[in-house]
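User: Design a sequence. Structure:
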């Protein structure tokens, strides 16, 4: 008995069945407002008014449901036979579709909640596993070992720590220059002595500091130099007490070169603060003659005297210079030197033959000679190679 109401019910039911089919075969989640449930606002309004006009009891609804399911097996088959349904059957079919949609939404919500919970659990488990793995005893020790290695390596010097301890001799009245090399965390000290080993006082240093280095007078004759930067060069001056001109100093801040940990500077001359009494021997130089001793004779001729050992000369004496350690018959030991260099004091005996002098000297670690008008420090050591 088709009429206007039945037509509206069929239209509404067809829309619901179509939407139900989409929900059942897609991953689209139809949750929320009634607009999402019905998709068509006009259909929703018509469907609700039809259900209100034709109110059925619960018993009637159950009986009609059973009858429809026995006859058509399910909603999909009912959808194919809408024209065969009565008004009450259409109403109940609409209720069945709405119930199925509600159940479908509930299942979707439940599935989504379970998925969210599973995702959270997986995320927590993953975070816990990562934390457990990274905070294990073995990994903690490994990280500590890496940190310790980084710290140790970062504190190592990039260049080998080569040091130098060296003595030099300067004439304060000449153009001698002091060169010193030092680096960051590797300071250098410069110590000044006179010819007799007495401290030679430093009165001033210029400049006392700059952007590259600092210096500090630690004692009257000791200056300490510390670097602020590396791979730099600078010039300065050291002023010594009683010396009429400053001593030029070249500062080199190069860590790739040996650092002058200690530089011992012997200043030719006597320190103003040296109050010791000095032995000065002034004797005439005797020309070679028949009265010349056998020792002097042999030395002037470049031959080794009796009871002697050849000495190695450390110092810039002229070519042809030779030295011996001679033991005299009474057991006394002296140094004899054959050289063209002049010596003005502190010799016991001297003879001359042509341009050569033969000097008898007290055994000392250091003697001074004049070479081309310049004082030269000379040391003598036993020549291990023999005579």
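Assistant: Done.
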């Amino acid at each position: 008995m088709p009429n206007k109401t039945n037509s509206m019910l069929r239209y509404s039911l067809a829309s619901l069945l179509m939407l139900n089919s989409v929900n059942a075969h897609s991953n689209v989640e139809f949750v929320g407002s009634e607009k999402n449930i019905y998709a068509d606002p006009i259909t929703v309004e018509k469907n609700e008014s039809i259900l209100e006009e034709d109110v059925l009891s619960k018993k009637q609804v159950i009986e009609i449901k059973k009858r429809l399911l026995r006859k058509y097996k399910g909603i999909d088959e009912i959808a194919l036979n809408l024209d065969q349904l009565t008004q009450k059957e259409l109403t109940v079919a609409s209720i069945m579709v709405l119930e199925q949609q509600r159940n479908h939404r509930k299942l979707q919500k439940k599935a989504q909640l379970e998925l969210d919970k599973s995702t959270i659990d997986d995320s927590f488990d993953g975070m816990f596993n990562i934390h457990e793995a990274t905070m294990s005893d073995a990994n903690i020790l490994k990280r500590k070992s890496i940190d310790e290695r980084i710290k140790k390596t970062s504190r190592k010097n990039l260049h080998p720590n080569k040091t130098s301890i060296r003595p030099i001799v300067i004439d304060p009245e000449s153009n001698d220059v002091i060169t010193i090399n030092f680096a960051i965390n590797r300071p250098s000290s410069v110590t000044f002595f006179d010819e007799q080993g007495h401290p030679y006082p430093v009165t001033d240093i210029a400049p006392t500091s700059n952007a590259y280095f600092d210096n500090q007078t630690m004692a009257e004759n000791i200056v300490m130099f510390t670097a602020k930067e590396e791979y730099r060069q600078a010039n300065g001056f050291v002023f010594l007490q009683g010396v009429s001109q400053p001593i030029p100093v070249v500062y080199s801040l190069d860590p790739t070169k040996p650092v002058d940990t200690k530089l011992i500077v012997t200043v030719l001359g006597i320190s103003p603060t040296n109050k010791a009494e000095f032995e000065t021997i002034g004797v005439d130089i005797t020309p070679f003659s028949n009265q010349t001793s056998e020792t002097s004779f042999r030395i002037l001729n470049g031959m080794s005297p009796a009871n002697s050992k050849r000495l190695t000369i450390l110092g810039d004496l002229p070519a042809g210079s030779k030295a011996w350690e001679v033991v005299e018959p009474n057991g006394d030991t002296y140094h004899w030197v054959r050289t063209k260099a002049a010596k003005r004091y502190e010799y016991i005996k001297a003879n001359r033959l042509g341009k050569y002098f033969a000097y008898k000297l007290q055994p000392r670690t250091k003697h001074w000679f004049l070479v081309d008008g310049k004082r030269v420090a000379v040391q003598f050591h036993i020549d291990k190679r023999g005579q």
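The chain is about 35% helix and 30% strand. Residues 25-53, 278-282 have pLDDT under 50 and may be disordered.
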